[in-house]
Automatic annotation (TrEMBL), chain A:
<feature type="transmembrane region" description="Helical">
    <location>
        <begin position="139"/>
        <end position="160"/>
    </location>
</feature>
<feature type="transmembrane region" description="Helical">
    <location>
        <begin position="56"/>
        <end position="75"/>
    </location>
</feature>
<feature type="domain" description="DUF112">
    <location>
        <begin position="21"/>
        <end position="448"/>
    </location>
</feature>
<feature type="transmembrane region" description="Helical">
    <location>
        <begin position="394"/>
        <end position="415"/>
    </location>
</feature>
<feature type="transmembrane region" description="Helical">
    <location>
        <begin position="480"/>
        <end position="498"/>
    </location>
</feature>
<feature type="transmembrane region" description="Helical">
    <location>
        <begin position="167"/>
        <end position="185"/>
    </location>
</feature>
<dbReference type="InterPro" id="IPR002823">
    <property type="entry name" value="DUF112_TM"/>
</dbReference>
<keyword id="KW-1133">Transmembrane helix</keyword>
<protein>
    <submittedName>
        <fullName>Transporter</fullName>
    </submittedName>
</protein>
From TrEMBL, chain B:
<comment type="similarity">
    <text>Belongs to the UPF0065 (bug) family.</text>
</comment>
<dbReference type="InterPro" id="IPR042100">
    <property type="entry name" value="Bug_dom1"/>
</dbReference>
<dbReference type="InterPro" id="IPR005064">
    <property type="entry name" value="BUG"/>
</dbReference>
<dbReference type="Pfam" id="PF03401">
    <property type="entry name" value="TctC"/>
</dbReference>
<protein>
    <recommendedName>
        <fullName>Tripartite-type tricarboxylate transporter, receptor component TctC</fullName>
    </recommendedName>
</protein>
Amino acid sequence: MEGFFQFSQILWQLVSNPTNLLVVFVASLLGIGFGALPGLTATLGVALLTTLTYGFDVSTALLALLGLYVGAIYGGSYPSILINIPGTAAAAASALDGYPMSQRGEGAKALGLITSASAIGTFIGLLMLVFIAPFIASVALQFTSFEFFLLALFGILISGTLTGEGGAVKGWIMGMLGLFLATIGRDSLQFFPRFTFDQPALDSGLDIVAVLIGAYGIPQVIKVLSDTSEVKSKASASFDSMKQGFASVYVGVLEAFKYIKHVVRSALIGVGIGAVPGVGEDIAGWVSYSAAKKGSKNPETFGKGNAEGLVSAETANNACVGGAMIPLLTLGIPGSAPAAMLLGALILHGVNPGPTLTTERPDFLLEITAIMMLATFAMFINGTILAQRVAKLLTVPATLFMPLVAVLCVLGSYALGLNVFNIYVMLPFGILAYCLIEMKFPISPLVIGFILGPMADESLRRALLVTEGSLFPLLQRPLAIVLLLIIVVMVLSQVPLINRMFKKKKVVF
Amino acid sequence: MKHTSPYKQHLASLAAFVGLALGILFFRHTVIDGADEFPSRPISHVVVWSAGGGTDIANRVVSAEMAKLLGQTVNVTNRPGGVAGSLGMSYVSQRPADGYTWVGISESCVTAGVMGGWQERMDIWYPMIIGGSPSVISVSSESSINSLTDLIAQAKQRTINAAAGGSGSIHHLNLLAFERGVDAPFKFVPFPGSAPAQIAAVTQEVHVVITTLAEQQQLISAGKLKPLAMLNESEYAFSENLIIPSAFVDFPSLSEHLPVFQSIGMAISDDAPDEVKALLSEAFTQALQTPTVKTWADNNYFSLSGRTGDAAKEEFARLESLFTWTLNDMGVTKISPEALAIARPDASE
């Protein structure tokens, strides 16, 4: 009770300063922009703001940084829903159901849904951070190389089973292709150059942003521009939705509470995954989406505009923010890439996150909580207002703004690191992705495979180095066995024969 | 309204054009001759390691103070990747040598050449050394190993896995020097940085970890890591109840191989104008004296060096020779240090 009183006092101090409110709202808006634009990421945004906010005091700087972080994870879903091009890897799972919804004329509602879902997700993440942080941190520290490998493998396989009409096998083929692409460059254990063909530009591997934009952006541009029938149907559907009024954003905002069961489950998944060091928002969306689909009474509606799927993916990636803060504040270990940036920013401001934090600055956890709450609030308000404006974009035929998206794709891949080589990677890769999609190969598992590839590759090889080539120690670790069992069951459930045997009894997970 | 003749219109536009041209000329003139007004535009500071790491934080803290002293914005970005920071260093070395692009480096960067990251040596830089944190060898707090003598005795009987950052990092070199000093073998398990290496020691995936005290302090305070010894000649009073002994007490032969000290710093191109170098050195020296930097160093188990100019160049040359030849003797170099004209370390080193 005393803690709550103290908390309200801190919150009041923050709110009563108009500069703080301005900072958090602007940062949140900036974050949504960073998330929505291909090529700009939450990590980059936090890094840029770190130096810009150096002159501010700690709480104002943190308002800016957390406001941007929360906003960016949310904003990545805008293009997912509107044009089927995720702004960040974290928002890829949101496109699966978000885009079909907007094609059905429910784009405004979808935007409303994700606004609520993201806000509640962040908020639940926050509650976990306050109440059970030490417990979660200790579980997250059970992860050794074997577990990291299995988690990465799980992420790749699960995204393979979820996407596409081609079935799980096609998804897995793409996942393996992604793994292969991830091996390009010097390997991080021994610096051995793999598939670099003596090209220095390939030494550090393919750039993740270039691959992301190529995989999602280019195929969608080609697809929309080559589809002549799209113009009429899409535009008319959107006009219908406009007639229903932009009130549908609010409908969406409120409707999210109908899915509260999914929201809570997804938030818990998000927090758990966010807390594991080095694993972040991108995988959380997929795991949560799969949990929603497996638990659903009608899994066949997923991928065709099921709001449950959208809400689940979107809640989890935002809950990750709170999760990533847990090891950061309790042990000084960042849980995700943007959290690593935050660690730098905190130390820069003389805050030393870790176990000594509670003795050095007893109020700090409450302060962070208040700051994150304000950041969530700013994201929610910004999101609700912005969603209405953005929903109008849907009334513009996609064919008209796709050329602009194409330019943004080129700019986005060049902007990160001002590297022309990234454009050379992005364009051919985009064309390859288009061909693969036409052949009914889902593209998301490839991207997830590429993102998680280094973790899978490195962790497995390191684990085998420690055990001198033996896989048996894996079976002595309870967490590894659990992960392994989940993977085995998931793979078996895709085999038609076994699937039929279990058809009568519903397999849950 | 009076009608203007076409002739007058032409004249007006001609005058405007000439004015504009003169303006541009004048502007360029001031920019080119404006070296005495350095810095007249924001400075870009490229750290070659990722954000939140030791090099990154030290650079951010110091360059923020320098920004205040110089009265100019310093934008810190990270450009990790390549070999031993080669991507970031190549990038900065290709920028104009005008002092507007700084590079944030650490001692590990001296290996970029021999590891095939780039074709340069460290002598292309004008370095300024912030300092470093001393190295410490630790085990998990749940480990049965309780002292350095314990550890060495066990290492002589069974395989002891040691984490020490990535291959060719300062921690790896400390491990190699340590192995030679105590005459016992360890199995090096590479991790992509200090943080994952330390977590691996906490989870007991590996038996021991060598990183810096700054990197381990939170895990030591949390009771997750048990420090065994400092890898230099002096003990360290970590807290009232915890004094970390020097490894040199039980193993005096270590003094022949250690310490290999961290040298985190920043640099500009050595081709930059002398007055720019002097100005930045001055700002750097002053920045290290500020209470902000001093408090930060104390709180973070960091000892400040402050060497600039020739002294800093000498230190980097010494590290370059030490690192590259050690790696060469390990047989992991892509290009021999000889090919880059790097001298072997003196026998006394």
